[in-house]
């Protein structure tokens, strides 16, 4: 048994959760804690079938779900694993060994992104496999020192972009975080246009909140991030003779900026109405 508590935040995740939890059970962790966001499908039943302890975040979103699971964890090491992840055999133990050897505060597994056969899913997976963000520390499949994670916590104003916000705060304290070059896990994307659009909008909202809530010269760099990633993708698609990806990168850029503009507009309206602008807009999935 691995002395690690695995926390899986979920909301209407029945399509992916079964494979995710089966792969976690095979790693033999100390415990599996599933934190549900008021799912209306069979998510909770699937979690219980795999022997997971099920908690609820009362619909308050990912940061609350992750923090609640961490608070309830019995191990001093916590693995945050999203429902769209599948852990290959032995991968959790290997990541834990690397975490301890390197004395990390947080270590994310390397992500091998995949999807089904439809265009938008394949494009998302291609982007994540070839983009620079594949080496950015995040929260998809990440081992943490529990005490440090509880100390730093999550900013609950972020429904997306909370990984960037946490990474910046950890780095400011000198905490060692990173992405494994030794251990890869499977990261799955949905195939539909609706799924891809949701990803683009969530990214844009998250980036805008970083700029608004954490103003600095560093955060202003995020203004250029979607445009830079889009132009890089278009250029590489042309150079590599893969013009079919150009539509994806143009759409990615447009919808990221559409979401950012919406966030900025709502922020200005909130400031003018006198509420301080701390509550901006709802997330893509409708959670506050």
- Strand order across the biggest sheet? 3-2-1-4-7-6-8-5
Rounded to an integer in angstroms, the radius of gyration calculated over CA atoms is: 19 Å
Order of secondary-structure elements:
EHEHEHEEHEHEHHEHHHH
Per DSSP E runs of 2 or more residues, the count of β-strands stands at 8
Largest sheet: 8 strands, mixed
Share of helix, binned: 40-55%
What name does the CATH topology of the largest domain carry? Answer: Spore Coat Polysaccharide Biosynthesis Protein SpsA, Chain A
> Helix count, per DSSP?
11
Structural class, by secondary structure, is: alpha/beta
CATH architecture heading of the largest domain: Alpha-Beta Complex
Number of domains: 2
CATH C-level category of the largest domain: Alpha Beta
Weakly predicted, low-confidence segments: 277-288
């Amino acid at each position: 048994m691995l002395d690690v508590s695995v926390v899986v935040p979920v909301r209407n995740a029945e399509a992916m959760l079964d494979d995710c939890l089966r792969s976690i059970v095979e790693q033999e962790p100390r415990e599996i804690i599933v934190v549900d966001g008021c799912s209306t499908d069979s998510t909770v039943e699937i979690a219980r079938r795999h022997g997971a302890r099920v908690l609820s975040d009362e619909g308050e979103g990912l940061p609350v779900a992750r923090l609640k699971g961490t608070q309830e964890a019995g191990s001093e090491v916590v693995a945050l694993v999203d429902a769209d992840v599948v852990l290959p055999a032995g991968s959790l133990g290997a990541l834990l060994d690397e975490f301890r050897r390197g004395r990390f505060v947080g270590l994310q597994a390397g992500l091998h992104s995949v999807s089904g056969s439809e265009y938008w899913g394949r494009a998302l997976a291609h982007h994540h496999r070839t983009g620079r963000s594949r080496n950015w520390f995040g929260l998809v499949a990440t081992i943490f020192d529990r005490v440090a994670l509880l100390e730093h916590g999550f900013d609950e104003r972020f429904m997306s972009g909370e990984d960037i916000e946490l990474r910046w705060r950890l780095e400011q304290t000198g905490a060692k975080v990173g992405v494994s070059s030794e251990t890869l896990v499977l990261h799955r994307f949905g195939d539909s246009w609706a799924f891809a659009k949701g990803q683009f909008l969530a990214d844009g909202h998250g980036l805008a909140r970083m700029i608004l809530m954490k103003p600095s010269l560093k955060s202003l760099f995020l203004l250029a991030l979607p445009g830079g990633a889009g132009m890089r993708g278009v250029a590489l698609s042309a150079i590599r003779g893969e013009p079919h990806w150009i539509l994806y990168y143009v759409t990615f850029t447009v919808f990221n900026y559409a979401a950012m503009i919406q966030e900025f507009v709502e922020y200005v309206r909130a400031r003018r109405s006198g509420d301080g602008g701390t509550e901006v807009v709802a997330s893509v999935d409708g959670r506050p």
